[in-house]
Design a protein that fits this description.
300 residues, mainly alpha, Lysozyme, two-stranded antiparallel sheet
Length: 300
Amino acid sequence: MNYRLLNAIRDIQVASKECNLYSGSIDGAWGKGSASGVTSLLDDYNYRVNGSRAHTSPLPVILASQDNTSALKGIQNNLKLLKLYEGDVDGVMGPGTWNAFRKVVASYRAYNKVPFLDIGWSKKVTKAFIKKVEDWCKKHNMDERAPSWLMACMHFETGGTFSPTIRNGAGAYYFGLIQFGKDAASDMGTTVDYLITLTAEQQLDWVFKYFEMWMKRGKVYTRLEDFYLTIFYPAAVGKTPDEVIFNRDIEKQKLGYTQNKGFDFDKDGKITVGEINTRLYTTYYDGMLPQNRVVLNQNY
């Protein structure tokens, strides 16, 4: 599965939904709703810049019947015509394409007074918790989506509770926001027994210390899965989707497989990075739905 392409369309759907221009699922499937939402965003920007409405717009039509790659190429072509994008029309959502599309979305928000939404799963935690996550990601110059990526990991690890005391669902000795175990706690100079005495906001500091420890060991966080795999199995960070992490038939991996067999979607006795990504990105995009995010006041 091409996660990069699938998630590019999902990110576009999220942005369109935030602007009340898309009512469908965040599923990465290009169709009528996705095409309509993006067309409205582009035409609105074109009107602000060039003074032309959709029916007289010089922008090429992005068809609902296109596949994901063709749709993304169509968006890139439109962004070029709007002088927002100078890269190749290659159907890849790189930083240039994403930044250009964000400008279109920002323009629509400003002129149509669309309220901003806080980070993913923000309705599940306190304002203090959110601020700490955002400040830490900003401190380390991470992608603007990183706070929501981190929230998705903690939502996943705690079963949506964000509880600092919740125990691993399989009964293993792992607890809290990122399921701290004895080895991880020891590496940071603390204990699990101490960590579970903390509030969620207090334990969050140890979540940050955990990631900073791995940063010093060379881990880089540029994708959602980089965060999660650092929690789940650090050696897998940067691996391809078909990389097998646990195999039921290999003696040294049996316990890891048994404790995480819920990831084995095709029931073949193997857990791959791709299978983990499937669950993880579902959690992330569920968290990005408006009903799971705090509405922010915004002065235009």
